[in-house]
Each structure stands twice: as C-alpha cells, then as structure tokens.
Design goal:
TIM Barrel, seven-stranded parallel β-sheet, 48% helix, alpha/beta
Length: 339
Amino acid sequence: MNGFQRVTAALKGEWPDKRPIVLHNFMLAAKEAGFTMKQYYSNPENAAKAHIQAVEKYGLDGVLWDLDTAVLASAVGVPVDFPENEPARAHKACLNHLEEIENLNIPDISKNERIIVAVEGFKMLKKYFGNEIHLRGNADQAPFSLASMMRTPAEWMMDLIINPELCHKLLCYTTKVVKKFIQLLADEGAHLISNGDSPAGPEMISPEQYLEFALPYEKEIVEYTHDLGLPYMLHICGNTELILDEMPKTGLDAVELDYKTDINKIFSKYNQKITLSGNIDPSGVIANGTKELVKEKTLEILNIYKHSPRFIMNAGCAIPPTTPEENIRILVNTTRSYM
C-alpha cells in the first residue's frame, strides 16, 4: 500500500498494511526546510517544498496542508498580524458591532492573496504526489471559529448570550465562506477536508451552546463536503469529553483531538465508526519528551487501538518547530514496526 491507500483504508474502517502516519507538522516542516514562518505562509512554493521534504525525510503517509489559523479570517477582512517567526494570527475584530452582519456580502475569496497562496501551494503538492500520498486539505476555521475571529473571542462569547439571533446570521455567513474554501481545495484534488473549531469546545462554551451554535453549522459543512465526494475530519483543541457524544451527529468521518481528551474514552465511543487522528501531546511528549517517553506514548495509543483499524498516528495538535528530529523518527519507527 502507498500512503494514500493506508490513510484511505483507516478512514473507511479497513485494515491497512501498516498504521498510517500523517503529522500536524507545518511549523516543524517549515523550520526543517530552512524557512521562517513568514517565508512559509506567504509563498506557495516554499510551503509545498517544506511538506514534500518532510514526507520524504520521515516516510510519512500524507500531508496535513495548513498555512496557519488566520487564512479565512484575512479573506473576510479581519486584521491579521504576520510575524516573521510565528504563524500569522488574527488580532482585532472586523465587526465592531454584531449588527454590521446585515450589510456584509460574501466575498470572492478566490481573489484573496492568502487564499491564492493556500490553493497554489496545494496544487503543487497534488502535482508532485498525485495519489501516492494522502493530501488532507485543511480549509482553515469552521464557521463558529471564524465568527469568533470576526468579533474577537471575548465579544463573541458575549454575543452568544445577548443576541443569539444575530449570531446565527453571522454563522450562516461564515458557513458560506467556509464552503467556498472547501470547494477550492476539492477542485485541486484534496483527498480529505478538515476544519478547526477549537472555540466551540467545552473549554470555551457549554455543551448546550455547542449544540445550538456550532454543531448545526459543522453538520452543514460535513454534508457539503460529502456532496463533493470527500470524507471530512474535525479538529477541536482541549478536553472534548463533554461533547464526544455530540460531534458524531455532524456526520463526520474522522476527528483530530487533543491529548487532553482521554484516549480510552475516545476509543470506547469512536473506534467502530469514526477514525481518530492523534492524539499524542505535541509539546510535552513529542517536542520536549525523552526518547523513552515518545516511544512509551506511541506504544500506548497503538495498544489501545490494536483491534481497530480506525486510527492515524498523529499529534493532538500542531507540533512545535523546536521538536528534535530524533523524536519524530522514534514516533515513526515505533509505529511502522508495530504491525
């Protein structure tokens, strides 16, 4: 099997010849390729080259294509900072008052400079790897998360309580924007679509708020992705235990969850129908752990999923750029030799 076939098998609940490995490694890939983060996220050729080198250096089965967490935010007018050595980040609201949603038009994001970088870089990856390596197109933020950026997280949390009707209007708007990015990645041959929706997790809002304000729009995105003939993966940071029973209601095929969520609970609820990508601690274990700890935690999760094919080896979130090469090799070699 090649990498594309391994990941596809895991997503379908079929046994691959070896456990697939797809790492959340854009920061590490950029550093190992000799690029600053700004050189990575502002140049499609650099970004594609970084992931190609990472796949070939470590023998990975796929690419998690991601520039940073502020691509769509920039495309809808959110002020974004562009540090030289860190990922781009939203820093200010583009909607000072929630009522401004009444006057917003859906932008043609395909003309946005950052979207162009993301799409062109992905196109280069697809041309290079074809269907040999699995290409996960991360369409940046899910609707709830994008709305949070447009208002700032603090204001958005207040909005949910004070004006839920207008919140839903903003979420309808952000859902349309997210769909446009998904379509652009699908058109370039993505094998899997994903979004991040971390502000929708229980560390930010209640499970009841998740059901009202996040899940319906995640569900719409999943259905749209399925209509395009592609599987869908959702990423939420933090401890998601309180909504583990709710997330499957979106119809998703896979999840990328943080190490803060008990792996045994993920397994017990998801191992028959939903594939897990994760969930080793990217900082405490992969970046800063000893060789022994990396191997221990890798074997721990492999043992838990021993009788289920629905697993892709990965960190629970983005791997820091300071991660030693040796630790990545231990994770990869331990996984490869397990089956």
